[in-house]
From TrEMBL:
UvrC family homology region profile domain: residues covered: 259-482
Subunit architecture: Interacts with UvrB in an incision complex.
NCBIfam families: PRK00558.1-5, uvrC
Subcellular location: Cytoplasm
InterPro entries, A to Z: GIY-YIG_endonuc (IPR000305), GIY-YIG_endonuc_sf (IPR035901), GIY-YIG_UvrC_Cho (IPR047296), RuvA_2-like (IPR010994), UVR_dom (IPR001943), UVR_dom_sf (IPR036876), UvrABC_protein_C (IPR050066), UvrC (IPR004791)
Alphabetical list of PANTHER family matching this protein: UVRABC SYSTEM PROTEIN C, UVRC/OXIDOREDUCTASE
Pfam families: GIY-YIG, HHH_5, UVR, UvrC_RNaseH, UvrC_RNaseH_dom
Role played: The UvrABC repair system catalyzes the recognition and processing of DNA lesions. UvrC both incises the 5' and 3' sides of the lesion. The N-terminal half is responsible for the 3' incision and the C-terminal half is responsible for the 5' incision.
Ranges for domain UVR: 209-244
Protein name: UvrABC system protein C
GO cellular component terms, semicolon-separated: cytoplasm; excinuclease repair complex
Amino acid sequence: MSPELPENSFDVKAFLKNLTTRPGIYKMFNDQGEIIYIGKAKNLKNRVSSYFKKQTASTKQQAMVARIANIEVTVTHTEGEALLLECQQIKRHKPRYNICLRDDRSYPYIFLSSEHDFPQITLHRGAKKRKGKYFGPYPGIGAIKESLKLLQRIFPIRQCDDSIYNNRSRPCLQHQIERCTAPCVGLIDKAAYAQDVDSTVLFLEGKGGLLIDQLIVKMEQAAAKLEYERAAGFRDQILKLRSVLEKHFVHGERGDVDIIACATKAGVACVQVFFIRNGQHLGNKVFFPKITDEHDPAVIVQAFIPQYYLDKQVPHELIVSHQPEEDELLMEVLAVQAKHAVAISHNVRGERLKWLQMACTNAENSLLSKLSDKQGIYARFLSLQEELGCTELPKRLECFDISHTQGDQTVASCVVFDREGPVKSAYRRFNIEGITGGDDYAAIHQAVFRRFKRLKQGEHTAPDILLIDGGKGQVHEAQKALAELDINNVMIVGVSKGPDRKPGMEKLILVDQEQPIDIKPGASGLLLIQHIRDEAHRFAITGHRQRRGKAKKQSAMEAIPGLGPKRRQILLKQFGGLQGISQAGVDALCSVDGISRHLAQRIYELFHHQDDN
């Protein structure tokens, strides 16, 4: 017998009767108005109808269909347009039943400026507004720092900010350790510096062989002129280059290629991406897309590619471990996005197969590590449930901590854990105002009230357990704050430090119990509490230091003679805040109305003297 689909109040027949057969996207909503699934279709009527056919309904579809209270459609001209719109909407709403890519940040590049006589090379992330060349993208900041460090050893061009470069009067430490030729003080001419820049460009473009040939010619020419010291310098560059190219060169690859491997197990998916640009391996990046059910790896690769690439620079080829069902459509849409042909390859041989196998191995290893961590955290949640006597296994924990210096610049932190570990996107800080300095009770009350007031406004999910770093007083204030908001379904637990404040000797304080709970030292539930408490402490201290540093520089600016409130406000607006002022050079500060060179010099020295200390 075919499975019976659960009944719901949504009038399927009436909806399907008038549904168009054109391409577009469809959004499925539950009875609370939340989007639970977004899909795209070449024929909307055929695709949406398939969800309500008993013969083809999977277990996942049955669970999803049972929650549908409404469906909205958006018609597009082509299936390609529908794919683009689907990806944008999934990334924005992250529906429960979609495969969602969590990592959505911009990736960094190496930037080489072209607007200076002595160009700067540096890390860049964000919009490409500056004039110059961009190399990448790199999988992370670490990969770029490693590349810049290598470049400094071979072609020592400057990496310092313009504000520092424009105000140097003597060579810096980088010159002393032979990592920069000190163009800031004229120790190298434009022609010699330009040669190092050209060599750097060749290296970053993957033309290492051509670069070595050029350096060999220069070495031989220098030796012929009896310039042995200069020839030895070229020889050292050649040796360093050969060593670097042996480590990073990908044999058989000359262009831009990404290798994508997927592995799945126990309801967890892992995607590993290897980045190859100009024949050089720039590194690899691991992703764990959110899935609610077991999926075939090909389906995950199909969902991953558009979500990841449609707002990024696309290489000429993607080599995949599992062939997506709609690879032709993906290649067509990616080609429009990239303005060049994009190939998606599955059956590869030779060196390309070796790299694909390496990516698959890395994906499987990363997946096993993730599962191990996930199981360990789950066990800690089970232990916490047992120790606290909860009737159900907790899903979400929140922990508050307070940080200040003798009552000044008080900052409260709120960190969030779920059964997979820290949920850093849900972390929040609160600058505490209007209380007596050093009153931790009032600070906890204000922070908890502000946090849970937002919860009542629907801004975030309620925790099952609210952990407070402190004793009975702090717990009582948290209880008062929740009572004022008429919230009574959150368990409050105080985490009081034990004798001599030693880790492992904490006491747990509950609202309705006179005596603290003793947890056996080493219990995995206690380890979970220590982890979240320490994370809240770290997050609070970091926020406090930032606030204190900002206030210190703000007050220091107020002490500069001739820099009154009006000029301070103009500076803050012109440079977008204290950080912008601190990074500006004397010339930039002088360009602001009312700021003389003498005053600009004093402002500059304020920030850079503090940085030296």
